[in-house]
């Protein structure tokens, strides 16, 4: 057994909350879930239609290792429409979720011992994947009172000639903040390879949606269909790399995955046919949920202190009530039956935080916040 | 760029054949494909029904990281029915194809520099995956005149205290041979961790189908739904590990993949409901195709010289016509429009071989062998 590796991988603390919540539910207790990182929306009928038609027409054998040409073409067109960018389908790989896109991009770019900079708070998988593939994690921390923006002058003195990769996640999980154009420009000027995880791209409520590719043409982009299109279980993502990397990515994909799930690839073709109007109305709904959550938190005396402008998360500083976010989250669960994600999953600096998701129904969000109110009133 | 890693990964030579074949087809030439490693059968209606019902009922969000409990239970029952083995669903992971099962099992067991023994001829991905994750490949070669069985006394002196893992593939791609019970017993007695890739399990035409788990309870088993159930594009596999490894596998799965594609997991539940009668009639058809292929080869003066008793491949020694299987395969393609898989994909020793697949229709197989006859008659 590779005990050293296995034991170095940290569990997701939110899983402890989930497991505990499941046990309580088995005992008949009603739990409200605001810890989830996936939309509870049904997928659009276009997605269902294309997938079912793929199944019925027996289009379910291996695809091209880089993905169905029709899907890569549709994604290419979307980049042109949304960002005025010409991205050749030839430097695109359709992947098994954004997760595999991240795996492929790390393996294609990182050598053993390479220093990889993460921006804290970060998606919990990043440091684990870097460890699994033998890189060295270096953590740059952003601050709530700087709206979780990367402080460019601090960042400049933070990186060194040893920094081989920067992993960016904008819009961010867990803060729900997008980095500004100024920050993206700055990062692009550093001449360090960027892997930009844009899985929450499109879920923007204040400013226009962005891609690093408008600033750094040789950045690697990780994206997928899980969040904007609610296709989490379909496991479908895509990866855009500079042309010189695509052959390497393809060889890795052939050996590790053969190709991405084909029924899901057809579903994704359907997703890209959804009209702008329908996406816009989805976005207004998310925006209304966000606004409701922020104002309800305000009513509880919790000023989040920054502007979550994208994705579907609010990252709450609870330091006045809690030092250990796992204990705190378990206590909330036990006392009032509300599940939240503990901040320590997103970096050691944020162990006094919890992450709340507004990706579920209005009713669920309302119920959850009512329970949080009760908790704060009665147990803190 | 991780140039060292990327450039060390060998391409699949069969891809050169495929690309060339595609180009010829684009020009209007009719090509017969016997190089393919996937069944051309449509999937069973049960598979379609369960998958479509999953889509329509919106059961398409993330599943448990180890897979849907209902699917793991069905697989557990199958092991009891087929092999009289009680395999707890708790030590099973549903994976994104057998490919990911292999990736997870290597990462969970292999440390950097560990020596991994492969049995040549081997599935081309094995040495590449071992290289990608930092292991050392050691190749044990089997011989046609020993029916591609592992010679146990030679194997005993081949391994050393440095051998940390053995990857077994029985039934085998590319030979279509299953290792005997005697060999499985022998391997199990060595007290070296075995990863047994049983993806062709069930496709047996002479003897009963076997699993290493009947001989080595602590072996790791890689399996999936691509071959027996023709679900290649669905990307669904499963992994069975000793209980002490499952937590590590789960942590790797959560970070690298989250979970296997959920629509495909529902499809697989359908696959496991297919009756024994229907599987038996599929097997008789494969057997008839194999017999036809062997007798047609015999008519061409090619005695394959061993007994391919399983999977859907025949591995032909063509050394009397060819020294370089890639050149030879390209020549066959150019001259008579027949695509075959070059032997060098399966190990350096077998560069005088080609692999023929009988996983397509009778008509296609007949056409292919007619073309091979023409080639041998006119161009050798």
Short description:
The structure is a homodimer of 380-residue chains. The first copy, chain A, has 13 helices and twelve strands. Chain A is of the alpha/beta class and 380 residues long.
Describe the structure in your own words:
- 2 copies of one chain form a homodimer.
- The first copy, chain A, has 380 residues and is an alpha/beta fold.
- Chain A folds into 2 domains: 144 residues, Aspartate Aminotransferase, domain 1; 227 residues, Aspartate Aminotransferase, domain 2 (3-Layer(aba) Sandwich), CATH 3.40.640.10.
- Helices cover 42% and strands 14% of the residues of chain A.
- Chain A has a 7-stranded mixed β-sheet with strand order 2-8-7-6-5-3-4, covered by helices on one side. In chain A, strands 9-12-11 form a 3-stranded antiparallel β-sheet.
- In chain A, helix 6 links the parallel strand 3 and strand 4.
- In chain A, helix 5 crosses helix 9 and helix 11 packs parallel to helix 13.
- Chain A is globular and about 60 Å long.
- The mean pLDDT of chain A is 96.
Total helix count of chain A?
A: 13
Biggest interface: chains and residue counts? Answer: A-B, 63 and 63 residues
SSE pattern of chain A: HHEHHEHEHEHEHEEEHHHEHEEEH
Query: Based on helices, strands and strand pairing, what is the structural class of chain A?
Result: alpha/beta
Return residue spans of chain A where pLDDT drops below 50 for at least 5 consecutive residues: none
Number of domains of chain A: 2
Q: In the CATH hierarchy, what is the class of the largest domain in chain A?
A: Alpha Beta
Give the CATH topology of the largest domain in chain A.
Answer: Aspartate Aminotransferase, domain 2
Tell me, briefly, the overall form of chain A.
globular
């Amino acid at each position: 057994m590779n005990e050293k590796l296995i034991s170095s991988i940290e569990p997701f603390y939110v899983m402890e909350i989930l497991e505990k919540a499941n046990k309580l539910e088995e005992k008949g207790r009603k739990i409200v879930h605001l810890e989830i990182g996936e939309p509870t929306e049904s997928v659009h009928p276009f997605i269902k239609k294309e997938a079912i038609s793929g199944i019925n027409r027996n289009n379910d054998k291996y695809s091209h290792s880089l993905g169905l040409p029709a899907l890569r073409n549709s994604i290419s067109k979307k980049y042109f429409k949304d960002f005025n960018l010409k991205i050749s389908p030839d430097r695109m790989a359709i992947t098994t979720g954004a997760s595999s896109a991240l795996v492929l991009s790390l393996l294609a770019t990182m050598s053993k011992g390479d220093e990889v900079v993460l921006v804290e708070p970060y998606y919990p998988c990043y440091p684990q994947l870097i460890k699994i593939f033998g890189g060295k994690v270096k953590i740059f921390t952003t601050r709530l009172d700087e709206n979780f923006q990367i402080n460019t002058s601090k960042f400049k003195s933070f990186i060194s000639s040893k920094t081989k990769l920067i992993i960016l996640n904008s819009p961010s999980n867990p803060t729900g903040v997008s980095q500004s154009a100024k920050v993206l420009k700055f990062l692009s000027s550093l001449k360090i390879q960027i892997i930009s995880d844009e899985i929450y791209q499109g879920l923007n409520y204040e400013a226009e949606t962005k891609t690093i590719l408008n600033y750094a043409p040789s950045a690697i982009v990780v994206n997928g269909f899980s969040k904007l299109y609610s296709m989490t279980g379909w496991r479908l993502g895509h990866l855009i790399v500079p042309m010189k990397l695509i052959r390497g990515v393809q060889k890795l994909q052939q050996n590790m995955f053969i190709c991405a799930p084909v029924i899901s690839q057809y579903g994704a073709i359907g997703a890209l046919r959804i009209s702008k109007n329908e996406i816009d109305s989805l976005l207004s709904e998310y925006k209304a949920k966000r606004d409701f959550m922020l104002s309800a938190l305000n009513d509880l005396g919790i000023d989040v202190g920054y502007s979550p402008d994208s994705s579907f998360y609010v990252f709450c500083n609870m330091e006045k009530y809690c030092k250990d976010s796992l204990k705190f989250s378990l206590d909330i669960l036990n006392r009032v039956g509300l599940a939240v994600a503990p901040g320590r999953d997103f970096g050691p600096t944020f162990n006094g935080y919890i992450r709340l998701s507004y990706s579920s129904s209005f009713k669920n969000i309302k119920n959850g916040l009512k329970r949080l109110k009760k908790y704060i009133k009665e147990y803190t």
